[in-house]
Design goal:
266 residues, alpha/beta, GMP Synthetase, Chain A, domain 3, seven-stranded mixed beta sheet, four-stranded mixed beta sheet, 8 helices
């Protein structure tokens, strides 16, 4: 049995080891018949890896392209499926976060990718300004295109490392340090050892709400490890916080989950 993700016109299938080519093509043809909007089917060859969360695929069926055009939450996204990480499984999560943003707010999105969180927030909320930071240059180019595609004027993308962009509580924008504090900080963090909470605290103020994502095993969830890390980092930053809630946001692999912790700066 093959697993798959559908990203608009492209489906990415993953097969059990030793599946024969003929069986793969048979499953691909069945999938294309089921989903009429599909024009390309690729096979996922490697797991997501690296800070840029890239994957490797091979062509199976249809048009030979790796550029997807995907729609969710009344927003359109264009991206290369190999070089730009994108999870369609977070569509409802993005809509939920957008629904929490109050009118006139300033929002920071770290690890922005092709800007799905930023654009959905820009489209569904009445935020005044949304700043999105992304390390990958190609992701940033697609993010800029997606901002225009969705006709948004309150979303800005900044290319660079979060640690370098955020400097002493200010954003380093093209060499200029811009003092900013945000009402909301969204952290859809990759699976990295670093928490990047130091940077989130630097651009927060009293009342800022931070939505921090982490990856935990069942045992780590029982130990409340995500919460422990946040409390430890808040003490280092000399910030008092109030935990607003925790939520499981899907299973990434057997017994490994994405978890979100919501907290407010006091």
């Amino acid at each position: 049995m093959a697993n798959y993700d559908i990203l608009g016109n492209i489906a990415i299938m993953k097969f059990p080891e030793n599946t024969k080519k003929g069986e793969k093509l048979k499953k691909a043809k069945q999938l294309m018949k089921t989903y009429k909007n599909l024009s390309t089917i690729l096979e996922k060859k490697e797991k997501v890896k690296g800070r840029l969360r890239t994957i490797k695929t091979s062509f199976l069926l249809g048009n030979k392209t790796k550029e997807a055009l995907y729609k969710e939450n009344n927003c359109f996204f264009k991206f290369n499926v190999e070089s730009c990480y994108f999870s369609p499984r977070l569509a409802s999560e993005r809509a939920e976060i957008a629904g929490k943003i109050k009118k006139g707010s300033r929002v920071l999105v770290m690890f922005a990718g092709v800007a799905p969180f930023a654009i959905v927030i820009g489209k569904l909320s009445k935020a005044k300004e949304i700043i999105a930071i992304e390390l990958g240059k190609q992701c940033c180019r697609y993010a800029e295109e997606n901002i225009k595609l969705n006709k948004l004027h309150n979303v800005k993308i900044i290319q660079g490392d979060v640690k370098k962009i955020i400097s002493k509580g200010r954003l380093n924008v093209k060499g200029n340090l811009v003092p900013l504090r945000f009402d909301y900080v969204i952290m859809p963090r990759p699976q990295l050892k670093e928490t990047f909470l130091k940077q989130a605290f630097q651009v927060s103020k009293t009342g800022t709400i931070i939505y921090c994502y982490d990856f935990q095993t069942q045992e780590e969830i029982k130990q409340n490890l995500a919460l422990s890390k946040i409390l430890e980092e808040s003490k280092k930053a000399k910030k008092k916080i109030k935990i607003l809630g925790q939520k499981l946001c899907g299973e990434l692999a057997p017994y490994k989950f994405r978890i979100r912790v919501d907290f407010r700066i006091l």
